[in-house]
Amino acid sequence: MHSFWWLVCALHHVIWAATMLISIQAMLPEPPVRCDKNGCNLYNSYGVWGDRKDCHVQNVTYPTTEEELRLAVAYANQNKLKVKVVSQFSHTIPKLACPATSSGNSMLISTAKYNSSIEIDAKNLAVTVDAGIGLRRLIDAVEEAGLSLVAAPYWEGVSVGGLVSTGAHGSSWWGKGGAVHDHIVGLSLIVPAKQSEGFAKIVKLEPKDQIFNAAKVSLGLLGVISKVKLSLEPRFKRSIAYNFTDDAQIENIYMDHAKKYEFADITWYPSKHTAAYRYDNRVPLNASGDGTYEFLGFQSNSILISKSIRATEKTMDNGRSLGGKCTMAASFLGVKKLVANGLKNGLIFTGYPVIGPQGKMQTSGSCLYSAAADNSCAWDPRINGLFFYETTAIFPASKFGDFIRDVKKLRDLKPDNFCGVDIYNGFLIRFIRATGAYLGQPEDSVVVDFNYFRADDALTPRFNQDVWEEVEQLAFFKYGAKPHWAKNRNLAFLDVQKKYPNFNKFVAVKRQLDPQNLFSSEWSDEVVFGKEGVKRDGCALEGQCICSEDRHCSPGKGYFCKPGLVYKEARVCRYSSSPPPSPLSVGSGSDKNDF
Asked: Which of 103, 338, 475, 543 has the fewest CB atoms within 10 Å distance of its CB?
């Protein structure tokens, strides 16, 4: 989602685009559930799931009150239906929200219309909200009351129930940390119940309750979150500046950076040997400044530009053009420095630091609401715009430096191979604290996000895809990073349950609250229990498997299963101009001539 390289081309094409006479109106995001006479389909915001298969359900219901929400769960329980919850938004990349079964006995509960209540308790610095409330609406309400929500993800297109369910986070090692679920002080959960209890009941939880740590990050597997109570602080401002500098010491100073700045992050552009350190601390409310942070990739932008950018990237990828990608990456980095990645002192960016209220600095997503003609979010699937993977790995803080060192070794073999990720947003590095949540990280951690090109067709190999497969496997298998529950390709979740020391405690709570597994599905089980699917021809091309045979790649197009170049245990699909003389052997060289 952190893809905003379209801005570079926008600057080149702005005069041309302004002269086009087109009657298309602003294209706001479509609802995630769309129905016709044959039933309903659930989509994520990219329009395509990881396996490219539809999520079909018979029907969807839209409760408006907590009691209607309870009745919907009761109906599913009484009729033995598989059930999942979806909100007004749908930005989860894995199929966690898909209840579909081969027998068709499934339904969706949408919280899109369950969004009326925001109760602010100023005396006790807390707010209680309906789970369907959008993040931006919540932030605006608490700021208006003279308070601030400390933690929030960088993307605001999420509901409160959805963001706490999947472990959404910003960046901070200070205080309670950057994960929103660690700011929860109360939660109501609707779970299946006996017939004598009306087939569903509301369970109200507080931190003292035994199952609270299971419910904080529940992935929608325990029941339906109906209310969330979050802690607040008196309203404050933030002061932000970026320092673009050499990346030579990043693996040695990331901890110091996180400890020095409350909302620190780092963006690393490996092909350009550049790191952008974010200096971000709170300042008093009376500090001068009314700045905003509108992250460039989340701003509404021209449909024509988004389409042309995607077409250009496809041409470069199909033509194996490193030069084109590296030129674009260099131009992009220059623009980012010029406009401070979306920071504005007022109407525009005029210089560092940018000081503004917490509510205007902590999250962004203006493409969700723009009324400008001919604009949309850059990844809207209706326009053939940006289409990419998003890998997000959560490392124990002590292991992250060694991961960076290995990535640098891979980068140094041929730096231009990393231009593809720098076209997007490089490696975004954030910080989250240890949590008591059973499906959260048990130690202070470092989170890395990186985006990269995805082909239109599942069986089309990608230029230099072996590089990103090796980085992916370095993260999740050599260094044992945990995958973000709402992102990643399927292979990232292999054996994920072994990475959580409290996983069995979570499973025990699930058996207690949902003994009939109404809130489980084959799709959520695949993610949560780290199951690898059947290996088929081409399955490694989109991360549905790790290759072990050439047929899992695309030998007909010159992509064969090979060992990693730095992480030798990795198995990646690498291009070779000539076919191998024999089937894959684990000792079969590294094909450096084709790297």
From this structure: 103
Contacts of 102 (CB under 8 A, 6+ apart): none
Evaluate if residue 222 carries a pLDDT over 80.
Answer: yes
Length of the chain, in residues? 595
Strand partners, 279: 241
Which residues of the chain does CATH 3.30.465.10 include? 25-235+497-531
pLDDT in tens, 384-427: 999 999 999 999 999 999 999 999 999 999 999 999 999 999 99
Q: Is the pTM of this model over 0.85?
A: yes
Instruction: Report strand pairing: 571-575 vs 55-57.
Output: unpaired
Is 25-235+497-531 in CATH node 3.30.465.10?
Answer: yes
Q: Is 584 exposed, middle or buried (0-12, 13-18, 19+ CB in 10 A)?
A: middle
Whole-angstrom distance, CA of residue 487 vs CA of residue 592: 32
What would the pLDDT profile of 194-215 be if each residue is shown by its tens digit?
Answer: 999 999 999 999 999 999 999 9
Partner residues linked to 205 by β-bridges: 187
Q: What is the pLDDT of residue 6?
A: 41
User: What CATH class has 238-494?
Assistant: alpha beta
DSSP one-letter string for 232-295 = -EE--EEEEEEEEEE-TTHHHHHHHHHHHSTT-EEEEEGGGTEEEEEEEEEE-TTSS---EE--
What's the one-letter identity of residue 396?
P
Residue recorded with tokens 């769309």: 34
- The three-state secondary structure class of 561 is strand
Contact 355, 285 (CB under 8 A): no
